[in-house]
Amino acid sequence: MLGKTALLEALVGKNRGILATEADQQAILAAVAQLEDRNPTPQPLAATDLLDGNWRLLYTSSRDLLRIDQLPLLKLGQIYQCIRAKTATLYNIAEVYGLPYLEGLVSVAARFEAVSERRVNVRFERSIIGLQRLVDYQSPEWFIQQIESGKKFPAIDFNITAREQRGWLEVTYLDQDLRIGRGNEGSIFVLTKVK
């Protein structure tokens, strides 16, 4: 698909948006809009076989996420959003690198509820921030299994109950290996499915 190829080419070398100039951002936004107009899955929330799974972030305009890379001695590694449609849960996991042996992770677990055929309301429930070594982090899948089993981690591990820790996410494009979403703060997310 030409639109998909154009978007993927526009993302090359942008480091998930960290290195995107204003002109790059405009080109990416235009490519995203063209692809959204050709969404092969008009009811993405009903397509749980496509939606479900682990997704790796290719690009975002979210300053909150990209700001992690600006912290002293830290570099943002891979970012994942893992969706479990059957239990209406999602997990955001950001791997953070810096000094040797001090690799970290920042994660949030949330529940979601469909409010339309494309939009979910999201309620954040738990945050875990710590060193990968201390939580024995091996992969997003392994980490999620540990969370779902109720494990408490030797990290900053706390429940989120504040009312303001809510948002929404709209899936505007979904196919076998690419998902585009728009968030309540105006952010765009482009993700690829992890096999």
Describe this structure as you would to a colleague.
The protein has a single domain (2-193), classed as Lipocalin, CATH 2.40.128.280. The protein has an eight-stranded antiparallel barrel with strand order 1-2-3-4-5-7-8-9. The longest helix has 16 residues, at 22-37. Strand 8 and strand 9 form a beta hairpin. The chain contains five helices and nine strands; from the N terminus they run αααβαββββαββββ. It starts with a helix and ends with a strand. The protein is of the alpha+beta class. The chain has helices spanning 2-11, 22-37, 48-51, 63-66, 140-148; strands spanning 53-60, 75-84, 89-97, 104-114, 119-131, 156-159, 166-174, 178-183, 188-193.
What is the topology?
Blueprint: H1 2-11, H2 22-37, H3 48-51, E1 53-60, H4 63-66, E2 75-84, E3 89-97, E4 104-114, E5 119-131, H5 140-148, E6 156-159, E7 166-174, E8 178-183, E9 188-193
Antiparallel strand pairs: 1-2, 1-9, 2-3, 3-4, 4-5, 5-6, 5-7, 7-8, 8-9
Helix pairs in contact: 1-2
Keywords:
alpha+beta; 5 helices; Lipocalin; globular; eight-stranded antiparallel beta barrel; 195 residues
The CATH class assignment is Mainly Beta
DSSP, total strands? 9
Shape: globular
The helix/strand order is HHHEHEEEEHEEEE
Beta-strand fraction estimate: 35-45%
Count structural domains. 1
Residue-averaged pLDDT: 90
Q: What is the correct CATH architecture?
A: Beta Barrel
Poorly predicted runs of 5 or more residues = none
* Arrangement of strands in the largest sheet: 1-2-3-4-5-7-8-9
